[in-house]
Design goal:
This protein is mainly beta. The chain contains no helices and eleven strands. The protein has strands at 4-7, 10-13, 18-24, 33-39, 46-51, 58-60, 68-73, 78-83, 92-99, 117-118, 122-127. Strands 2, 4, 5, 6, 9, 10 and 11 form a seven-stranded mixed sheet that branches. The N and C termini lie far apart (38 Å).
Length: 128
């Protein structure tokens, strides 16, 4: 399994921005498909964004499309989630996830069951 550590969460006003980071262990990070999910109180964990291991394909949920950007730096074993124009409904614990088995370069994964490693989560709170 891959060890994942998220950081960058916090409290921000509506309309503000945050950048989440997820640092991964392992020498084969560049071959991991990665994703971000979030879970609000009383709700199920939901897909936010995903990036292929090659970094050349991304996918977003409709609720964040155009506001959030996922990216990766394989030299730093890190995946990022840039969040702009934040809304109160973005408030949640954000989780980073990794798929540790090699898959085709451009494939993105959007289901929680497709990931085998998870971080501990970082809280994002957006005030109105």
């Amino acid at each position: 399994q891959v060890q994942l550590v998220e950081s960058g969460g916090g409290l921000v006003q509506a309309g503000g921005s945050l950048r989440l980071s997820c640092a991964a262990s392992g020498r084969t990070f560049s071959s991991y498909a990665m994703g971000w999910f979030r879970q609000a109180p009383g709700k199920e964990r939901e897909f936010v964004a995903a990036i292929s291991w090659g970094g050349d394909n991304t996918h977003y949920s409709d609720s964040v499309k155009g506001r959030f950007t996922i990216s990766r730096d394989n030299a730093k074993n890190t995946v990022y989630l840039q969040m702009n124009s934040l809304k109160p409904e973005d408030t949640a614990v954000y989780y980073c996830a990794a798929h540790g088995t090699r898959i085709p370069r451009t494939v993105v994964l959007i289901r929680t069951t497709e990931y085998d490693s998870w971080g501990q989560g970082t809280q994002v709170t957006v005030s109105s």
